[in-house]
Each structure stands twice: as structure tokens, then as C-alpha cells.
Amino acid sequence: MTYSNILYDVSDGVALITLNRAQTHNALSTALVEEFIQGLDEADKNSDVKIVVVTGAGGRSFSAGYDMKEAAENKDHSFAASRARTKWDLRFVLSVWECSKPVLAMIDGYCLAGAFEFAMGCDGRYCSEASTFACLEARFASAATPIMPWIIGNRCRSLMYTGDTIGAQEAFQLGLVDQIFPKATLSTEVMKIARRMAEAPLETLRMQKRAINNTFEVMGMVSALRYGSELAAKMLAIGSPESDKFNALRQAEGLAAALRWRSEQFAPYE
């Protein structure tokens, strides 16, 4: 299959899927997300693939999150439209969870908002020392898919309420990433890990992933994510003074002006 927004390669039992919109910090456009889901399905069906690694092109970002310019073009803020959007977002986050094979996120640079949620849905996260993470939804008067509580427990609250950015070391200390590597060796080290995993029998990997996932699902994780998706849809449809101001600025003066205004609100307390 030919792709325009991702790169897809298979070698030594590992499928490498690269989010390939470096000029936009690999922003998650509709086209990119749909191609990623297709590529992941291709890897899942390929008997030569045992492990999937996801990364971002360009060396600056894993991904900065959903494409805000594309979002600005959407004028329908009804509950039905908002619900369709948040269900689509959740489908993307759960695509790696539902893949029968382990999926690893190889993160170098920015990993923000929807991309951070997506990475937390992966089986493992490995990052460079230059990586930064943020659950930015709060700063956009929106709500995140609540997957973080299942990874770090109650310590998620501060990050989800403030939208603060953290570095690689703090992410590691919180348990959000499994290992940190120097930027220059990140790819080599992560591919070594992936190929070690790929030495295990495919059915063993599949059964182990199924058993681990079932542990979380019995505790209600997927139900909680679906509930969070519904609340996010309601928030988008209802709106808020902050989101109204942001959207008005974005339409009148452009995205850069809206982002500057948003940053100014938080600046006195950083």
C-alpha cells in the first residue's frame, strides 16, 4: 500500500511506522490518522511482523497533537458533530491498544496533547533526553481522554489540570516513559529492544498482550475512556468563555495570535 502521510517499513520482524508531517511537527491530521490506522492494520495482518514501532519524522517532534489549523476549519460545534469527533479521537488512541501485537512509541522531541494520549495507549514508550510532554487540553478549555490515570494513578491530576510541560526525566520518574536514551542513539537502542522482543514466538507476544490488556479492561479502563470521550464531546458542544475567546482570536487574527493569548494567561503563574 502507498502512503502519503506516514512511512512504513518492515525489517527483522519489526514494522516501523513514521508519522511523516515534519513541517507541521507531525500534527495529527485526518489523513495522517487514517493512514496510520491502515498501516497498523497492515502490520497486524503481516505474519512477518511481531513488533510495531511508531515514531515521528524530522527529529523535532514525535507529534505536537491534533492539527489545529484543520480543527479551525470545522464550523459545526453541535453535540452530534462533537461526539463524532471525540469518538474518532478515541478510535485512534485505542488502535494501538487493540492491535494484537506489541506497539512501542519511540519519542524524540515534542509529544503533546492528542499525541501524548496516543503514546500512552502504546505498550511501551522510549524517549530521547530532548523530549517534552504535556497534556495541553486544559489550556484549550478541552478534556483529555483519561488514559493517564491508568499509567501513573492519582499523580495524573496535576498534569491534566494545569497542562504543564514536563521533560524526559520527570516523565521517567512518573512512569510515563520506560527508558531515556541520548538523542543520537535513540533509534538504535529502541530497535534493539524491539528486535529482542521479536525473538519471542508471535503467539506468545499476542497472548501476553491479550492477558495484560484484559487485566485493565476488567478494571474498567476502556469503559472509562469511552465515558471520558462522551464528556469531552459535551464540553466541545457547550463551550466556555475561554474557548470562545480563543476561537474568536483564531478567526480574527490567526492561530499564532490565539496561541499567544493563551500563553499569556498562564505566564504569570509559570
Main attributes?
270 residues; 2-enoyl-CoA Hydratase, Chain A, domain 1; 2 domains; 4-stranded mixed beta sheet; globular
Question: What's the structural blueprint in terms of helices and strands?
Answer:
Blueprint: E1 6-11, E2 14-19, H1 30-45, E3 51-56, E4 61-63, H2 68-72, H3 79-98, E5 103-107, E6 110-112, H4 113-120, E7 124-128, E8 132-134, H5 149-152, H6 156-162, E9 165-167, H7 168-174, E10 179-181, H8 186-197, H9 202-218, H10 221-238, H11 241-253, H12 255-266
Parallel strand pairs: 2-3, 3-5, 4-6, 5-7, 6-8, 7-10
Antiparallel strand pairs: 1-2, 8-9
Helix pairs in contact: 3-4, 3-10, 11-12
CATH topology of the largest domain: 2-enoyl-CoA Hydratase, Chain A, domain 1
CATH evolutionary superfamily of the largest domain = 2-enoyl-CoA Hydratase, Chain A, domain 1
- End-to-end Cα distance: 46 Å
Q: Count the DSSP helices.
A: 12
- Whole-angstrom Rg: 18 Å
Supply the CATH architecture of the largest domain. Answer: Alpha-Beta Complex
Helix content: 40-55%
Largest sheet: 6 strands, mixed
> How much β-strand is present in the residues?
15-25%
Order of helices and strands: EEHEEHHEEHEEHHEHEHHHHH
Q: Which regions have little confidence, pLDDT < 50, spanning 5+ residues?
A: none
Average pLDDT across residues? 93
Structural class: alpha/beta
Strand order, biggest sheet? 1-2-3-5-7-10
Instruction: Please report the first level of CATH classification, the CATH class of the largest domain.
Output: Alpha Beta
Strands, total number:
10
Number of domains: 2
Given the C-alpha coordinates, what overall shape results? globular
